[in-house]
């Protein structure tokens, strides 16, 4: 009960909050405690997995005892990237703008001569970790695009084929 007290300051009359999190994390259980009664059905924690079970299947709005309201959402099972990201609102607009000054229009920003992005990293203007995150995001977007056009099994097969090629290349280079 003492752990709930700090939450009540955010749940005053006229305020609404939303619970968002992984499936089985305990959002509905927390809501029941804040409401002072069982307003949402919850399942027991799985003994074999030691995790909560997915029970909420749609959004619900509830009053809590402090006067505020809580939206209880179903658990998030997967988060995906949107292909239609606007260049001006990209999380990596600095890298994308710098890329316009690269020598080659199809520069991968890894090893090409005249890569302005790599030059900015060497000068400390962009962190190497940021570029790594940019490459990871591009890879995830490519995977999402492939998944739209191929069956999931085919995409998985292609991914494992690439992994296998890389392993063979590593073994060969030893």
Q: Can you characterise this structure?
A:
The protein is mainly alpha-helical. It contains six helices and three strands, in the order H-E-H-E-E-H-H-H-H. The chain has helices at about 5-10, 25-35, 95-100, 115-120, 130-150, 150-174, and strands at about 15-20, 60-65, 70. A three-stranded mixed sheet has the order 1-3-2, covered by helices on one side. A hairpin with a 5-residue loop joins strand 2 and strand 3. It starts with a helix and ends with a helix. The mean pLDDT is about 85.
Structural class: mainly alpha
Radius of gyration computed on alpha carbons? 24 Å
- Distance between the ends: 60 Å
Q: Give the count of helical stretches.
A: 6
Write out the strand line-up for the largest beta sheet, numbering strands in chain order.
1-3-2
Shape, per Cα inertia axes:
elongated
Low-confidence stretches are none
Share of helix among residues? 40-55%
Largest sheet: 3 strands, mixed
Q: What is the beta-strand fraction?
A: 5-15%
H-E order: HEHEEHHHH
Keywords:
174 residues; mainly alpha; three-stranded mixed beta sheet; 6 helices
Describe the SSE topology.
Layout: H1 5-8, E1 16-19, H2 27-35, E2 60-63, E3 69-72, H3 93-99, H4 116-122, H5 128-149, H6 152-173
Parallel strand pairs: 1-3
Antiparallel strand pairs: 2-3
